[in-house]
Design brief:
- A hairpin with a 2-residue loop joins strand 11 and strand 12 (250-252).
- The protein has four domains: 10-198, Histidine kinase-like ATPase, C-terminal domain (Heat Shock Protein 90, 2-Layer Sandwich); 212-319, Ribosomal Protein S5, domain 2 (2-Layer Sandwich), CATH 3.30.230.10; 335-390 and 492-523, no CATH class; 395-484, MutL, C-terminal domain, regulatory subdomain (Ribosomal Protein S8, Chain: A, domain 1).
- By secondary structure, the protein is an alpha+beta fold.
- 39% of the residues are buried.
- The longest helix has 18 residues, at 163-180.
């Protein structure tokens, strides 16, 4: 009987890899630039013709390769970046798989001229097959020329975008990496026209040089492992096109960080707007995994909730870093933001004890909304500061909203011995709370989706509250009511909170006196 299973040829394997790594000319340039940066280049030049479809040339002054290295560089998974599997836990390089050159060579005509300051070598490859390997003249560094991209893969070539669209994508890639590596000089030419030319400089100067005057009007901040630029709230856009996230100098795509950035702006921007920002994170390589996407565009963070919360708080602090509470109380437009940014932790309103209740205001809602935090709206009326409690609306959302938000990466949770003995009951409990949970074994489970009303950064404390209340026999509804009023809900926008308040949805509204401020606003 004939065998049904056969080993693929090296040519087929490389073309399959090319389908994952090489989508278009921009992805080719991204891989070649990663290699040049890992080679320690101080200057990198890029030249393209017809949006890179006709030809791509990337030249660097990095460490180059010896003849022995050149002979190995087109083998799949041949790499200078790692030696063993454990190295994946401490990656400090842009590339590491050793697939890029082999994949690119399999769908193009490729030439490499390189020297490690010793003998220079020239390698020429067509469709993955080496036709020439010979000595040549070349200073230290590497030049990679790619022509006739996808000439032997007509189905792939048919779905390529126009030269203009490809050029725009290449410019974005080059600019992102130039911002991430300000000590490196970059140049980019298309059809002989200079599209990018930057010399070594500081990080802030590189951002302004590339992104322009719009980025001179925002706020800059710098902390131990996070620094960046925050655009003016009034200039937020309908898309995320003005956002750039850099992780250890690697441009990444991250819905998690984009949500954290938006939450950090809070009510400073409209609910459907997205601020311009450049955020550069410096994290221990053990805290994230870039080996989850063939082109390394997406990453998985080990502690998503902690990173989300830190990003939100850092963005909040960046707006008013020097602000201190005002005492004695004098009302101004900056008083409300002062209370929310003057401490290390967010401040939350706590109702006073019954014996110290302040009279509720008898009149209809009136005044000027200032700021919103969780279920509370601060507003000014005739020079006085008031807080309106919208907690009932938060409770209603938590108990009645059935919509869910799927998590990009499911979150795994451990089970204690006591919890594992009642795992089935716990799964039912979580389902009643609106979470999609499933067991992964006797000692852990994972969350795939959470309720739409929930702030994703507060999943961990919600889980803790649900598990503790289950052991105490407290119904799910009671837990949801409590946590919905305690800052777990997604924040209202200022417009949403003001509309609910004017509709009479506030449970109460209280006038704040100078002596009340410390008593009512406490750390959660």
């Amino acid at each position: 009987m004939a065998r049904k299973i056969a080993l693929l040829s090296d040519e087929a394997i490389n073309q399959i890899a090319a389908g994952e790594v090489v989508e278009n000319p921009a992805s080719v340039i991204k891989e070649l630039l990663d290699n040049a940066l890992d080679a320690g280049a101080a200057a990198i030049s890029i030249e393209i013709q017809a949006g890179g479809h006709q030809s791509i040339v990337v030249e660097d002054d990095g460490c180059g390769m010896s003849r022995e290295d050149v002979e190995l560089c087109l083998l799949r998974h041949a790499t200078s970046k790692i030696r063993e599997a454990s190295d994946l836990e401490r990656l400090s390089t842009m590339g590491f798989r050793g697939e890029a050159l082999a994949a690119i060579a399999s769908v193009s005509k490729l030439e490499i001229r390189t020297s490690d300051a010793g003998e220079a070598s020239r390698l020429y490859v067509e469709g993955g097959r080496i036709s020439t390997l010979e000595p040549c003249a070349r200073n230290r560094g590497t030049t990679v020329s790619v022509s006739s991209l996808f000439y032997n893969a007509p189905a792939r070539r048919k779905f390529q975008k126009s030269p203009q669209a490809s050029t725009a994508a290449i410019v974005r890639i080059a600019e992102s990496l130039a911002i991430a590596h300000p000590a490196v000089a970059f140049s980019l030419r298309s059809q002989g026209q200079l599209l990018l030319d930057v010399r070594p400089t500081g990080w802030r100067e590189r951002v302004l040089e590339i992104l322009g005057a719009e980025y001179a009007r925002g706020s800059w901040f710098e902390e131990d492992d996070l620094k960046g630029f925050l655009g003016v709230p009034e200039e937020a856009k309908a898309t995320r096109s003005g956002q750039l996230f850099l992780l250890n100098r690697r441009p990444i795509f991250s819905p998690l960080l984009s949500r954290a950035l938006k939450d950090g702006y809070g009510t400073r921007i409209a609910s459907n707007a997205h601020p311009a920002a450049v955020l550069l994170f410096e994290l221990d390589p053990a805290e994230f995994d870039v080996n989850v996407h063939p082109q390394k565009r997406e990453v998985r963070f080990r502690r998503e909730s902690a990173l989300f919360a830190k990003t939100v708080k850092t963005v909040q602090r960046a707006f008013l870093p020097e602000c201190q509470p005002v005492s004695p109380f004098v009302f101004s437009e900056r008083i409300a933001p002062a209370f929310f940014t003057s401490r290390e932790e967010p401040l939350f309103f706590e109702p006073p004890p019954v014996e110290k209740q302040i009279d509720f205001l008898p009149q209809e809602p009136a005044g000027r909304p200032l700021a919103v935090l969780g279920p509370f709206l601060l507003f000014e009326q005739q020079g006085n500061l008031y807080v309106a409690d919208l907690g009932a609306v938060c409770e209603e959302r938590a108990l009645e909203t059935e919509e869910k938000q799927a998590l990009l990466i499911p979150i795994e949770c451990p089970l204690s011995l006591e919890e594992s003995q009642m795992a089935g009951e716990l799964m039912d409990h979580l389902e009643k709370a609106g979470l999609d949970a499933r067991l992964l074994g006797p000692k852990r489970f994972c969350i795939d989706a959470v309720p739409e009303w929930l702030d994703p950064g507060k999943l961990e404390p919600l889980m803790r509250a649900l598990k503790e209340d289950l052991l105490k026999g407290i119904p799910v509804e009671a837990t949801l009511r409590r946590v919905a009023r305690s800052g777990f809900s997604k924040n209202f926008t200022l417009e949403e909170a003001a509309a609910l308040w004017r509709q009479g949805k506030a449970i109460r509204q209280i006038c704040l006196e100078p002596t009340d401020l410390e008593r009512f606003f406490i750390k959660q």
